[in-house]
# Entry
Amino acid sequence: MKKNNNRHFSKKNQAQKARINNVEHVPSDKKKTFAKVNGGVFVYSKPLSVSELSEAINVPVPNIIKFLFLQGKAVTINHVLDDEMIGTVCLEFGYDFKKEKVVDEAHFEEIEIEDDPSSLVERSPVVTVMGHVDHGKTSIIDAIRHSNVADKEAGGISQAIGAYQKEHNGKKITIIDTPGHAAFTAMRARGASVTDIVVLVVAADDGVMPQTIEAIDHAKAANSQIIVAINKMDKPGVNPRKVKEELMAHDVIAEDYGGDVIMVEVSAKTKQGLDDLLDAILLKAEMMELKANPNRYAIGTVLEANLDRGEGPKATLLVQNGTLNAADFVVVGDIYGKIRRMSNENGQVLKSAGPSTPVAVTGLSSVPAAGDRFMAFPTERQAKEIAERRALEKLEKTRSKTSAMSLSDLNNLVTAGQVEDINVIVKADTDGSAEALKASLEKLSEDKVRVKVISAAAGAISDNDVLLASASHALIYGFNVRPDARIKALAEEQGVEIRLHRIIYELLDEMKAAIKGKYKAEVVEKVTGQAEVRHIYKITHVGTVAGSYVTSGEIKAGEKVRLLRDGAIVYEGTLESLKRFKDDVKEVRQGYECGLRIAGYNDVKEGDVVEGYEMVAKEEA
Ligand code: GDP
# Structure
């Protein structure tokens, strides 16, 4: 067997590898050498006090103080000097100076990787497909995927891991296979940007529609390049020029109109033009000169994650730089673990995964969130220490947030007699219920504690609501509305609590308890299982039946469920019927197929996820 020198690093090589990484694998508090003279140049990396500078450049403290005094700057021995003062002192005493940037590896999302150009190799482009609903995003993703003869030959069974790699003309293209904006924006809301190229799908028979424009905005905001796929070209009488002209109004200008956006005419149905689309992606990628260094520890982003009953926490990671090796130690978000099993989209076990490769991994200590960044480390001790520091920093950050207020905080403040006004924002499904809630909530006010509804309106919980809540110490009540994944992430980031209710008296009881200092946040939600919808059957007089496969836990008849599409909740209700073959059953466990119906909801689609949950005491969750 051919030995691959790049892939496996022995312990001896770890020091060298760490250096290749540009990241010193030393906890920053142990970095004592933050300032030293090196060949006549004083190199430092953080602000210094007069005494520290004195020691480092070997000039007595009084001399420095006197010199600065003559410059019109009165300082004392413990005064921390800014860069300008350090510079003038150094020059005065015969040194050149240089400030070095230290990278704290605990903040690995902030690391700007500066690989030596000679260590860089070409990497495949990462592509997300976006566009208006029904314009053919899913069809294009599937058509491209299934033209992968090689996959079938390799005997793999394709797995839904959130991304796959397509080979075309000997090169690879990484395609994120959850189409649409929800996943893309949820990631961006968390500061992660993984997409190099957005393929904007526009149906030739429908033209530019509202979500087309949204997709353009998202792509531009993320600095991704756009390639337009004008789809459904097989339909009679369609006119691609019209699409190009419509796009022009949004500053997406085709090459034949003097712009630089490649537009390809395709049909996901007849497969016409799909090769050209792949050619265009590779061409664009070449122009973008996408490069990475495979000889460093991996760094990248979580594309999706879930809890697998059998295998535990499971995550799809996109390696963005470096090489991830099976058995590496990784920190993901603020958890860590040793990779137990690493596989590709065909379920094949991998020993290593280079830049732009999506992999499914197990072995993490808990389930990370999509958009979390990860980094691999050579030892468990380092991974553990970094994860602990990150967890601590996150906690401190949450604690130091004074802007927003959770119901538990509020409760504690009321108990301590420290609160007079409770600010609330109400979002409800109708104007009527928003108004009714506002009136009822304000009526709960007591002498010592008043409830102030600062905004009450119908509609989904928006960015604006979260920012308003954050700015005004408010909590948000959602009545018959749910925030999408992006808003949830924003609220979490801002430390804003969103309370969701469907029953008015439950909402009022909760607030009543908080006002009296008796609120107990002890009931929490527990997800009992998830099923993936694989086939839709429309049955007369019955409605839509979703042929599904239970992917985790168990699904129970009559339980509360929500329907997730692209990670966002599209519906909540109860499971009206659950069948195995023709028989009604009480529950179906992981690994089994079933037919299910959600009461009052017929718009289930293939690929949706049905999630069952129950409310339990916190200890049981
Ligand atoms: P998405 O919502 O953007 O993911 O769109 P889908 O891929 O689900 O496609 C929506 C509908 O358009 C489906 O009924 C597809 O069969 C149909 N469709 C997609 N691509 C084509 C195409 O190239 N030609 C035709 N005639 N129909 C298409």
Notes: The first strand starts at residue 35 and ends at 38. Confidence is low (pLDDT under 50) at residues 1-33, 149-155, 399-403, 617-621. Residues 131, 133-139, 179, 231-232, 234-235, 267-269 surround guanosine-5'-diphosphate (CB under 6 Å). The first helix runs from residue 14 to 20.
